[in-house]
Amino acid sequence: MEKNQRTLLCIDDEPNILNALKRLLRKEDFRLLTANSGKQGLQILAENEVHVVVSDQRMPEMSGTEFLKEVKAAYPDIIRIILTGYTDVDSISEAINEGHLYKFFLKPWNDQNLKLEIRQALEQYDLMEDNKRLHDQVFQKNEELKKVNESLEQIILERTQNLEFQNKALQISHAILDDIPLPILGVSSEMLVVMANKAARQNMGHSRQLEVGDSIGDCFDATVESDLLGCLGSLEKKRISARCRDGRGFEMDLIPLTGRYQGQGIIMTLNPATD
Length: 275
Known about the structure:
The chain is about 45% helix and about 20% strand. The chain has 2 domains: about 5-110, 3-Layer(aba) Sandwich (Rossmann fold); about 130-270, PAS domain (Beta-Lactamase), CATH 3.30.450.20. By secondary structure, the chain is an alpha/beta fold.
């Protein structure tokens, strides 16, 4: 899907600095906006969709860290970068630790490095946007899986005398689960893999073929099994972060089974991490 053109906002109270940034970035593939104060920057943000902000640190009325703190509160998705002198490094480091900043650059900056970092910041914004979209898809698929599970359970209860229908329903459900593009694992209360669809097998890496009957502890790091057992005991959905044995990171939704299979297993949906 084609993305809209990204926008960069540069803020500095010195006109020569803004002019230097305009000359440096004029050929880049993004829209460039400028402001000469934090107050003007906030006004521009209220009127435009901005994806990355580069701000000077020492400005009258409002410092760069103060400005970016307000940006973080009002527009948390915007990537925030600051330009500063050597004497401000300690205060900038504190702001980074508090989560206000993505990165900082010392003046005078290296032109090529600054352009590269701005491009990477825009790419990071795109990754965050894609991750949110994937999270929404995961949530939707989880709800669909819940409905499919409840529907199949009801059908099986109503058609217990029709073995042919039950077998066909099971075959279709397995085929649906195998072809769903969302990576899904089924884990029993004994912490064994009882189902792994095609997307899960592909996303687990190539160091080892994932198979039914594998222990979940052989597939992921040690914390996953304890998280699964806790989820199975509480019967509440849970989201965790973990890595498989080949080092790939995932965000996982743990969904305990309900109905007559309550306490007997868990559905795991895997969302590959972007780091």
